[in-house]
Model the fold of this input.
Amino acid sequence: MPEHEAEEHARPVVTRRDFIAGAGVGVAATAIVAGGVTVATRQGVQTVPAPQPVAQTGAGGAVVAPAPAPGVAAQPQAVAQPAAPAAGALPQHMRRVTLDIDGAQHNVVVDVRESLWTTTSQKLGLNVTNLGCDRAQCGACTVVIDGRAVNGCSVFSARLGRGQKILTIAGIQTSPTTEGLHPIQRAFWMQGGFQCGICTRGFIMSSYALLQTNNNPTRAQIAEALSGNICRCGEYPKIYEAVESAATELRNPPVKPQAVLGPPPKRTGSPSTMDFQFANPLGSDEFIGEVDGALKLLDGVEGVSGNSSTAKVTYWPNEVSEDAIRKQFADSGYPVK
Ligand code: FES
Ligand code: FES
Done:
């Protein structure tokens, strides 16, 4: 077997997650071989001389015990054991923290090497971020901490217990229904700014951080703000369009029609129908139900049917005008041509 292949096979596999979670210590320990220590490096495996036995440490530094004379058996050394933590105290590598996630306080004991993604997903059972690369390169795990987009895989939970506000994708919507979606979430959905969806939560949270401080970004500013996020499906054009669409809605929030109490107007004759073409086709025919709900908020509109490209509106012409219907489409986030 060629030498470089032999090195590949001999190299211990120590992932970053193993390492920061502590398993790396065990892997490294089992890699200790007689006469040396096997160390994983970018180049391969190196063998370094075994360390000299250390008898004691003190203010003067480590003192190396003399090697036993040839033929003389080494005497066992008394090894000082670390003091056991007092009852109720945590081991040195653990911390008790209170994490403010989406406005809820979570008391949790974390390892000082534990990432926020690990804590939220594996300890708290919150399905609020995705994990992609696990090394701060893809942005799939992005959350917003005190207004800044941060990779959840690469920040330590132990450092987030000082009142920092951690905002996840679950914290930006107002209700679990589609009506409760944040304008950015709705824009990604309506513009089709995703394919497999692995990256989407991260893109939305990075967009959220951008639009909090700039609700009218240029395409270049959007690209810059999202440069820490990778979409392997290559949906960048749609993603950028979704951010622009969300920015437009955030600048011009739809005004909810006021409800007017009183008897309904007396209706005579039959309602009319009119077809409208969506400026931005819906993601699917089934979303016409959402449009129906939004348009029926306008007095005089009986209902909407149709498909992803065309809306057929049934309305009472003596109660509502075509212009008012077009405005209601636009205000609801479904502009028509
Ligand atoms: S999973 Fe955190 S940046 Fe990729
Ligand atoms: S939609 Fe698949 S990675 Fe972005």
